[in-house]
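so im writing up the methods section and need the Transposase record in one place, dumping it here so i stop losing it
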Amino acid sequence: MSRTRRVFGKDFKAKVVLEVLRETETLEVLAKKYELLPTQISIWKAEAIKNI
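--- predicted struct ---
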């Protein structure tokens, strides 16, 4: 059985990155909350900072 790749929209990514930048919760907590890997959130954060 193969897993299908999930696709995330810009709005979802922006919401997650904004929460990371607020630093109210740790990266691990946010990863569990949104069912993501911490490395994926870190990549989105780096891209957002680069493009600002």
